[in-house]
Design goal:
single chain; 135 residues; alpha+beta; ATP Synthase, domain 1; 2 domains; five-stranded mixed beta sheet; five-stranded antiparallel beta sheet; 2 helices; 10 strands; 31% helix; globular
Amino acid sequence: MPIRVRVLASDQPLLEGEADFLTFRGADGDLGVLPQHAPLLTWLKPGEVMVRQGDGERHVFLEGGFLEVLPDLVTVAAERGQLSSELGLEAAEEALRGAQERASRDPESPVAAHLFEVAQARVAAAQLQRRRERD
């Protein structure tokens, strides 16, 4: 029996439906969720959420956020995110260069460190998406 899933960003719902399996980048590492998972609340690191429905998968890139697992619903809330199919590798790489420059100018800044982490995760997600499109 699938579990209901909602992936929300502050500006829009990114994905809603049912899933057989989900993966996330949790605070303590990668996390998988199946239906009937124990209740859980955790924060998410920047990265992809994978939602498997039958034989298909959908991927959403999030800049971080929170995950709540209830017996009948998984909710992911993030400030910003987008479907991985909308990521552009060139734009992600350009953003990474800008984030690297900012972090090198101000290595003690937690904001610069966060932006660098997000940019690295965006490039990794864009590269994965490009490979998925080729396969």
